[in-house]
Amino acid sequence: MLSVAEAQARIRGAFHQLGNEQVGLTEGLGRVLAEDVAARLTQPPVAVSAMDGYAVRAADVATVPARLRVVGAAPAGGAYAGEVGAGEAVRIFTGGPLPAGADAIVIQEDTTADGDTVVVNEGAARGAYVRPAGLDFRTGDVLLAKGRLLTSRDIGIAAAMNVPWLRVTRRPRIAVLATGDEVVMPGDAIGPNQIVSSNGLSLSAFIVACGGEPVHLGIAPDDTAALRRLAEAAVGADLLVTSGGASVGDHDLVQSALGAAGMQLDFWKIAMRPGKPLMFGRIGPTAVLGVPGNPVSTLVCALMFLKPAIDVMLGRKEAAEPQPTARLGRDLPENDGREDYLRSRLSHDPEGRLVATPFERQDSSMLSLMAKADCLVVRAPRAPAIKAGATVAILPLAGGCLSI
Fold it and tell me: Which residue among 104, 177, 253, 336 has the highest number of C-beta atoms inside a 10 angstrom radius?
């Protein structure tokens, strides 16, 4: 059996970044930039006031109180066309351009208006409450880098940079095919020996959350010809993901059916729990990832193997941050030869430290525990028994594809 790390490396190596397309700024949320984005203007374009008050010469308010003649106003969106001379002030509002001759702002709270004059009660040093030109950014500054997953903040900065269009990586088209006579779609009539299928829908949602475009092919019965016909609908997709196999398990039917269709198998079986019967290969130009049929195994394998494939196709770099850790919430026995991923709840101890407590039962059919879990505690193969309070590696489920 392959290790998780080796399987991930093989899968990453089988994909490349897809081409790019242009989208409007309003369609950029959640997309991945295909090129750097540079500012098309300087912000602010000129020196402006950071507060409501009066634009003055700092030398005129070095000694207070000081009485100045108000010679005009500079509202946001407008400007005072003249120059501020000795003993003069211009009424100014937040965002208003700093008039020529002025070099400081006295805030409104530090003044007393008196007709066409103003009494300055607190002085202001040169540059006080002035936002200089280019304080935020300047024309040509690269503020959004290639490979960035765009957030609402990024959309805001792109708009401020006067960028109406973005070049983004094309979304990977991923065909999803669930298999098995025993599964039916939610809402359909359930036979005496059938269960409701969740895998196809959870995989499709996972793909969307990770930045891909799912093509849901439905459920293939345990019939070689039928499975091949449905799999043929994946032609043109960047990846075909199958879930489950024949009722006897272990992807036997999927492998034989797709093998007859020309699939070249790269590997099968991973030294991990849950998720041992994982299959990866290729039919012509289309990669094939076969994940186990148990619902929890499906999602854990999606996180460990499908997400890296999507990241490569989108041009997202592998995270360089160290793996997060937590204190273990209960004792765990010695592990066997498979890497373990334990569904766990997160909490904090009295000192505020993060604590991960694995659920007592880890049956891979129990999707309810996956829904309740905050993270996966990761245990290496042959890890020795460990006591509560020890430090363990975790994979958080909040903020990733399983929770977006």
Answer: 177
